[in-house]
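Annex B, item 7. Sequence and structure tokens for protein A, then protein B.
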Amino acid sequence: MQRTARTLAGIVAGIALTLASVAPAAGAGTTSSPEPGSVAERAGQVAAVTAATGRGKNKGTIADIAAAMQPGWNLGNTLDSTGSDETSWGNPRVTEDFLDQIRAQGFKSIRIPVTWSQHQGGAPNHTIDPAYLDRVEEIVGWALDDGFYVMINIHHDSWQWVNTMPTNHDAVLDRYSDTWTQIAERFKDESPRLTFESVNEPQFAGSSGEAQELELLAELNRVFHGIVRGSGGVNATRPLVLPTLHTGSDPAQLNALAGEIAALNDPNLIATVHNYGFWPFSVNIAGYTRFNAEVQQSLTDTFDQVHSAFTARGVPVIIGEYGLLGFDRHTGTVEQGEKLKFFEYFGYAARQRNFTTMLWDNGQHFDRTAYRWRDQALFDQISSSWTQRSGTASSDLVFVPASGAVAAQSLTLNPNGTSFQALLHDGAALVAGTDYTLAGNELTLSAALLQRLAGNRTPGPADELVVRFSGGVPWTIRVINQETPVLRNASGTTGSFAIPTSFTGDLLATMEAKYADGSNAGPQNWTSYKEFAYTFSPNYDAGTITLTPEFFAEVNDGTVNLTFHFWSGDTVTYTLTKTGTTVTGNP
């Protein structure tokens, strides 16, 4: 596919950007530029990337390039879609204007996951549809023109056919080799700001165990490395990204990849892992509704292990995907304040260890039609964490009873290295000693202030306060009038069952399910606390709590006792009776 003059200009700009990121400016005279597309220009590109990612004594340059990629964003559920084209999973076609909008959000790199299998012929050549390869090149070119560092890969192919390697070794290796040979050839003269990732979340089925899987991944990474390096052009020194098994962070996975990278003896390699936090918190199961000390320590320990395996040894790390797993089902799976605390700490912990981070976004975060963040407060916290810490608090919720006496309430502030500056209402500072008191990090809101904010006490959101710290994003406290929720009788089937619910201002945190004998009911019965959005889901607008077919698929006939835990601290019990596919419920 012919490159436009605009794209060629982007390549030249990319070379300059790469060089600027890894070397001090040199004082010298100017020279005339070669003609775009000429042999001289191509040679200049190769020389530039060699200088930017060179071998020998220039050991730090690959780390500088990885650092220049911070922060990054994923173009998820687009070219990685497994349907007929990039719109098959519901996202619109990518445009130059859309990529401009993403660049304007402050991202410096973009990971473009690509699934090739449905656009690829069979053996012996496994030819990629030229039109599809053209489309990938077009989007890559637009991103490079915007100044992005760009990463492309083999994505869902990992579970579609690469995973059969234990039982179909030669055929998989042939297809993998053919695929990367074609990609490398198409992009071998592209800007050095383009990186290749060997395979997304590598996994294997039918293996003899993890030892064999680690060997198979090492083989794939070696083949990938040899094909790309042997294809010439900029590929001779292009930064390459190698994943751990499953892109996980278990010590065996990290150590295996560290050994591979050492054996390849190539200073232009980057390690990648993915991180979605402590799993029970990430999907809201087993009662992990809060970003507590255990959840934080899990993230700290994982990052320390990754740092020790790679960064401390001079191998840069890209966290190629991060977020919360529950977002794929419901962005409210984790309560707002708790998710903000997670992302605040995640960004800080990654920055302390010099990791490059790439936010996973399959369309649930940045609206690709309206060009805005669906949750601006969440993005404000994420983007702030790239450079600084923000203060938080034990909660962002204060519930005031919709009737009866109003009492003072306290929250514990977490300054995170900042200091308290003011408590604001509608932009005006409230009065210490009257509206609130601060003893150490204990912030107490006076009864008089809460009475005033509660207004007519109608159940639901009443008002907001803002805690301003000396740095970072302010912390918003939502004041909510609340009564104990009321659940009503319901009937339905295992395929369609919803409990009519008057939430009366409250918010659902989690649900427990137990049989009459006290044993745990439903999926993942090692815990009584069920997974948010997978087994149950509140709909505040409709006034219902839905129990999903996935929940009932693993529930025995008979009685199931449910306990709904709300963020106010209230709990409500409810009884189900399941007979075949028929379900009834009553409070």
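Protein B:
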Amino acid sequence: MVMAITMAQVKLRSVATASGLLISVLVALPAVAVDTQITPQLRTSSYAYQIDEFDTDGTDEGLALAVSPSIDFLLTSKVLQTRFSWQHESLFYEDSQRSNRSYDEFDFSNVLSLYNDRLTWGINARNSYQVRNSQSGIFNDKITAGGELSEATSYGSFLNLATASYSDLDAALRLDYSHSEYDRPDIDDGLPAFDSDSYRAGLLLASRDRSNTTFWRLEGSVSRTNRQELTDYDSRVAQALFGLPLSSRLSIIGRGSYEYTDNNNFYQNEFSSYGGGIELKLGRVSWINVSINRSTTRRFEQENEDNTYWATAFYLAPSRRTSLEGTYDRRYFGRTASLAGQYNIRALTIRLNVSDSVQTQTSLDREQLDLGIFVCPDSAAEVTDCFRPPNANYTPQPGESFQQVFDVGVELDQELVLRRSASLALGYNKRRLSINMLLNATDLEYVERNNEQSSRSVSLRTGWRFSERSSINASLRVYQIDYQFADREDDNILMSVGYDMTLSEQSEMSLSLRRTERNSNIDRFNGSENRVWLTYIYSF
């Protein structure tokens, strides 16, 4: 599992442009209270590792020293949230198989919200080093496998316009642009260097009340992805719903949908449907509807396919702590389903998500499952570095901040895929104990080359705070991946444990151990690594 958070990362060549935009925004803002934090930091880590690979004679053993100066800039106000940070990491090896390396990373995100969040504009950019193809090693990182990491750069912007929450009309417009590029790593991962541009516009017009008067909902989106190595991909989607109340709880509904996709090659699909049914209102905000529909599907060089089917949509919110919404419908590729739910009490949080989509894999990297608010140290790189706040009144300590945490996929390329995914996230935090678990199942169909891949994963993170100055944590992450196109199945396991200790207001130290294993049905891909490291952090 990979974690993405609201802060982003940016290459040096993007900093000048982003900084110029930020300065322009700051000059244009009226005088408002602004909270600014600047935190320089120096991190040093010493590593000892031992690597065993099935197709390699002997054991790969070595030592490494990592020196990482960084600086973090955080600006918050009533209308603006900006984060910009830079980190340099130099690695020095006592290992005949590895040479010294260095990395420079920037993080940048900027969100401007005006008119009580009715107007929101954001820009972001990032530069990171990551695995693109999980077959080469899903837990590879800069310490022992820097040559297998791709330098990934992305930047983008979005604009949101929406009506006020008290308005009878629910209207929203969202415009998105993003650019992604991935360099070929030093050790070939089977993918070329590539870049892509994605454009999307979405519009929603709807009545806010579904019971007192005739209600309606119109929404649609248009998107285009320009791919360097492959043909471009276009998508258009529209949906309409109209309801006529027969009573305070029962309505007659009519609905329709339209979808068009085209990759300028053979993957061309057009789907249209219409139907009618009833909707039942349950309580103050909950509802469920059922409809009978007629659809027509047109595929590239195939006869039209007509279907009669039933569909349902619902929103259930029995309390402010609990909600569940979903759909069961049809699209050009067959049956489609979505489900999103959450349950929140003081100590326990549960989030459920089921979805399917057709997108390029780089676009799916941004189609993320919202896991909720976590408390993360400024140096956090993965969700296992974070914990859920123990209560609603928790105040982040120095070096901590609230972050919106997401789960994303593990593959990154330009291919077009049909992705079906189901995830369940659970978080428990009470007194000194924290437990966070994520279960995920994903099936990928590579529609342009008729291949499939499936993965099942479990991520478990536990932590115990001995005192305000010391804590221990342990994590277990398991990925079972079936590469059906390669007749290969892998079990990937990561186990780690760490002890963290705060020495003073400015310094802290940690001792960590981890073991990774990859067990494959193809022996030459088997491997394991044992690692222990000591880290010292000083904040100026």
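Comment on protein B: The radius of gyration is 25 Å.
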